[in-house]
Structures are given as C-alpha cells and as structure tokens.
Amino acid sequence: MNSVLRQSVGDEALGVGLDLGAAFRDSNVAEVLDKLDSELIGLAPVKSRIRDICALLLVDTLRRQAGLSTEALSLHMSFTGNPGTGKTTVALRMAEILHRLGYVRKGHMVAVTRDDLVGQYIGHTAPKTREVLKRAMGGVLFIDEAYYLYRPENERDYGQEAIEILLQEMENHRDDLVVILAGYEDRMERFFRSNPGLSSRIAHHITFPDYTSEELLEIAALMLDQMQYVLSADAEVALREYIELRQHQPHFANARSVRNALDRARLRQASRLFAHRGGTLERSDLMTIEAADIRASRVFSEAAGRPTTDTHDNHRE
After folding, report:
1. How far apart (Å, rounded) are the C-alpha atoms in residues 246 and 252?
2. How far is CA 284 from the centre of its chain?
C-alpha cells in the first residue's frame, strides 16, 4: 500500500473516524484525475467510471485497515471502442492511479499486440508471453486488439496458448498485475463469448464512445495550440466541414483521424509557403493554416464525386 495512504488510515484502524477525504488527498490521485480531464476532451462516462473505480479502491483500503471483511479485488479490465477514443491514454493514467493507491508496485504500462505474445512455431509462444508478463509485473499490461489472440479457424495457431498463460498469471498475480484488454466492442464481445474463462476474470468493462463533431473540433484546437498553429476564420469553417464529412467515411479513427488531417494540412501549408518564397514571411504566416490547406483534402473531392488534385494527399485525411 502507498505509504502516505497507509499513514492516513493506519492509526485509526481499530476505531472510528477513518477519513476518506484525507485518504483521497494524501494519495495524490486527484492529480492524475485532473491530468486525465486536461488530456482528454469529452468521454464523460469513461471519466465517471474511472472515478468510481478510485472510490472503490479507497473504500476497500479503509475497510481492510478497519479490520472489516473484504474480498480481494479483481481489477482486470476491458476497454472497448473505436480507434482514437483515448483507450491507451486512459490505461496509462489507470496504471498511475493503481500505483498511487498501492495496488501495483511500479505503476508503469506495457502496451502489446498479438505479435508480441504469439510465436510462429511450437515452443515460441510461451517464452514470448512470459517475457511480456515479466516486464508488466508491478503495473498494467495493455493488450490492444486482444481478439486477434483467438483464431479458431486456424488449428495451427498458437494464440490459445498465450491466452492460457495469461489466464494463469492474471489469477496468480492479481495483487501485482492488472491486465487491460482493448478493441472494437463487437469483436471483444465475440472474443469473450469464445473464452469464458477470460471473461470471468474481467471485473470492469468500460465502453469508450465516439467523439461528437464539436468534441473533435475542441481536440483539434488543443492539438493546434500545442503545435503553435492557428486556423484562419475560413479554415475553421473548412475544418468543421471536413470533420462532419470524415465522420461518415470508412476507417474513421476519431482523434487519430483529426491529428492525421492536421498533419496533412501542415504539409500543404508548408508547400504553399515554399511555392511563394520570393518574399519574406511573417511569424503569423508560419503559424496560420488557411482554408485551402484543409479543403485540398481528398475528403472534400470524394464527397463531391471529383478526383483529388492534391499530389501530396495519398491518404484519406
């Protein structure tokens, strides 16, 4: 347990007057929750669920210190949602929270996919999976697109071996390892139905909603501010239209698609400035993205049924 938190509750373990507010303040979890609010726009139901988990852990700590009966908590989780909805960021902050409340020793996160766990020949999967688990001990193991571990159509696939090792370690080291499985909601549901032993070990299922167009505009503004760029008034209008169009096209990845779009706009801005390199540039020229830098995207040309004319635009964004 976190030493500061232990001190907050230890002296009164046999009596009354345990101060939940003091335990919360002394744990410094509020700092992590504030960081989560500042890093991620929207996601109100996700943030609310994370706060609920914090409350559960704090109360569980006080109950144990007061000598009350309590079962060992299972903290393994499932994060479901589309790409770019903040699952990895929340997992990082969850690792910090668990560490500050004394539920894991280190508070780091190890992020992996199937390729990090599953081998390509007999005898290869077990050492790969155990090595990853060894690195994750004392923190959080985040497995993205976890459903790819299970491929029943291929009888020579070794993903099931990795799952069995995960099951064993999730149970044996539940006091020092938290596993978070992530991916698309529908695929994760099928994955859990096919692996009931794994599903039974997941205590917290958190769904990450897609961002609204207004939230994506806020995210874009935050990204631009961090990069020290600004949008002209016309560019703001263009970006709003872009987002509304892009949301209805294939392979949309929420905040990730917005970042990709801004990166393409920066490229077009640089090409535009370089094409008119005869004069001097003001600081504002270097900072400002114009509507043309956004409207050159193939998203607009595809929506209008025209071929793209942007030679730099090899991607949908």
Report:
1. 7
2. 34
pLDDT in tens, 264-279: 999 999 999 998 877 8
Tell me what the pLDDT averaged over the chain comes to: 89
Task: Read off the pLDDT of residues 67-109 as tens digits, 9 standing for 90 and up.
Answer: 887 777 889 999 999 999 999 999 999 999 999 999 999 999 9
3 state SS of 123: coil
Q: How far apart are CA 161 and CA 121, in angstroms?
A: 12
CA dihedral 125, 130, 132, 133 (to 10 degrees): 140
Q: How far apart are CA 36 and CA 113, in angstroms?
A: 24
- CA dihedral sign, ordered 199, 202, 206, 210: negative
Residue appearing with tokens 């001990």: 137
Residues 6+ apart with CB under 8 A from 157: 118, 151
- Can you tell me the distance from the alpha carbon of 262 to that of 273, in angstroms, rounded to the nearest whole number? 16
Residue 187 neighbours by CB under 8 Å, 6+ apart? 145, 147
Q: Answer yes or no: are the C-beta atoms of 160 and 191 closer than 8 Å.
A: no
Lowest mean pLDDT among 84-93, 157-166, 299-308: 299-308
Pairing type for strands 288-289 and 77-81 reads unpaired
**Residue 12's CB: how many other CB atoms inside 10 A?**
14
